[in-house]
Amino acid sequence: MKYSGIGGQAVLEGIMMKNKDQYAVAVRKPDGEIEVEVEHYTGIIHGSKLMNIPFIRGIFQFLDSLILGMRSLNFSASFYEDAEAEETAADKVFRKLFQDKAEKVFSGIVMVLSLVLAIGIFMVLPYYVTSLFEEYIRSDSFMALIEGVLRIVIFVGYVIGISLMKDIRRVYMYHGAEHKCINCIEKGRPLTVKNVMRSSRQHKRCGTSFLLFVMLVSVVLFFFIRVENPVYRVLIRIALIPVIAGISYEIIRLAGRSGNILVRIISAPGMWLQRLTTREPDESMAEVAIAAVEAVFDWKAYLYETFGYEVDDSWLVDEPEEEES
């Protein structure tokens, strides 16, 4: 595997792929055609020296991924909106107050509320549930471990729970197509549907692995950083979230650039969890992934520079499989 620098995300009936400051969202429209939108996104602190400081840069990379993910999701969802849906009173108020920026403001509010909900469920709730057993368990260390295990159980349970939803299952299939596409490139294979389909659907730089690292890092930090006051315990869990994100980003960044045995061991839990958040895609989904990649990434030049060979256009035609006699 050779690091390519390209990353992505599954959206509603499509895939977003990002390369440097460019990103493309490819969506399979209801009529079967693939729509591709290419945009630029430089990031919150583009050009700042903070982006070169380990552990600090991860905080802003995490926020950038949330913003970019919301934009991509809104674009993909626009093709599946109910045209006959009536405008609500809230919609009218938003349009009156914010005019052309109403959609961006609404997306920002949704993102903030989602963050607050995630913090409440995965950070505060495990602490609150564990605190109910304080009078029975006297060991602070054991309490910290119980809280950490409960946090991981809630996270894995959430992943399994949403996988039961039909729409999410299709998103997970597109998630698998995204990984297969990147793996195909980083393995040095020409980007064809056939090569994409036979590539792995797990990838070490996946956001699923990042979130699992967030849970694991939080267990370690909360084990060693303790305060007596219950209110301060909650506040410190919230205050340490940027620190946890920064550490987790450096781990996932290392995992994407190294293949040594220690990194593979560290990455193993996240790779296992990806079996839940990715599913085998069909060929039409692989086509969407390829369209997103080719809009922002010259994979032929990458293969030549990294693996030392030029791709003949005749290789890009998938040969039909022979019928059984």
What's the gist of this structure?
The protein is of the alpha+beta class. It has helices at residues 57-77, 89-98, 102-131, 140-162, 166-186, 193-197, 207-224, 230-239, 241-257, 261-277, 283-296, 299-307, and strands spanning 7-11, 14-19, 22-28, 34-40.
Rg, nearest Å: 22 Å
Percentage of β-strand residues: 5-15%
Low-confidence stretches: none
Query: Pairing-aware structural class of the strands and helices?
Result: alpha+beta
Sheet with most strands: strand arrangement: 1-2-3-4
Structure, described:
With 325 residues, this protein is of the alpha+beta class. The chain has helices at residues 57-77, 89-98, 102-131, 140-162, 166-186, 193-197, 207-224, 230-239, 241-257, 261-277, 283-296, 299-307, and strands at residues 7-11, 14-19, 22-28, 34-40. Strands 1-2-3-4 form a 4-stranded antiparallel beta sheet. It is globular and about 70 Å long. It starts with 6 loop residues before the first strand and ends in an 18-residue tail after the last helix. The relative contact order is 0.15. The model has no long low-confidence stretch (mean pLDDT 89).
